[in-house]
Amino acid sequence: MLKIIFAVLFSFLVIGKEADAADKSSQEILGSGIKGSIESYKVGDIVVIAIKDTDTNMGKSIFLEPDAAIIKRLMSEGNVRSSINTFLIKTAKHNILVDTGIGGSGGATHDNLVYLGIDPSEIDIILITHMHNDHIGGLLFGKDKIYPKAKVYIAAPEIEFWQSRPSAIAANNVLAAYTQNIVPFEFANKALPLFAKGEGDDIEIKVMKAAGHTPGHSAFEVISKKEHLLIAGDIVHNITIQTAEPLMSVTFDTDPEEAAKTREEIFDYAQKNKIPIAGMHIPFGGIVSIQKNKQGGYDFTVVKTNEDAQQKGGEK
Ligand SMILES: [Zn+2]
Questions:
Q1: N or C: which end of the chain has fewer CB within 10 A?
Q2: Which residues neighbour ligand 1 (ion) by CB within 5 Å?
Q3: pTM of the complete model
Q4: Which range, of 101-110, 146-155, 267-276, 284-293, averages the lowest pLDDT?
């Protein structure tokens, strides 16, 4: 009996310690002046920080075949405020940035990193979901690299796609400037080789093929201490419509049918495994959980950020 009491007491102590650590890191990261631009979310041992790059609108004009009845039912207020988000995976030893935002004078990712006390030269890994300008624009000042020391991971099919389009200036400028930094990867459902042996933390990042929006569009599953978060890029542009009606694709999907299929696959995977989805155009803080509904679509619940690991996980 004494043994059991001691074990229970010990586990409380351990959980309490972890919760303290989470609270501390949230406070340190949040600061006071930029609340609303940065939100933190704990995954096992690590903190994922959602960064709002900028606000944007995702109105009905983005849809390929806007069904008037659906638009009326789900978008009675016209445009839907959305955002461009990037995500910083902060481990004890590494700063991993997922996408870089739109860049130029419109994107705030770089400034928010500086605010967090992270110099761009301290970003050692960048994962790119795909090479549209609102995701890679933040890699360059003019033609100069903003993240000179980062290894930049991009799916091989994505690189090939943009190289075959020399008129796509933004993507090809990035490929030229970062030639020495780029690490192409193939789609395989296994962990990316991000760290040399002994250099890693308790983190694994698996790549998931999410093609359709672009040929090399990738989702990244972050795993630490058996907790998961799926950073799914542009799987949705308008979360309200594309969860209720997942077959509705947008004008800038390279292959709209494949994009719809991928959206359903990722939603199914996330709901079966109870994994929250982080998205680059899910209204900021950018993380939702997904549940299948009886109408053949999905419902979503905004996942609360800035809470410790005991309270989160997609439940209300
Ligand atoms: Zn985008």
A1: N
A2: 134, 234
A3: 0.85
A4: 101-110
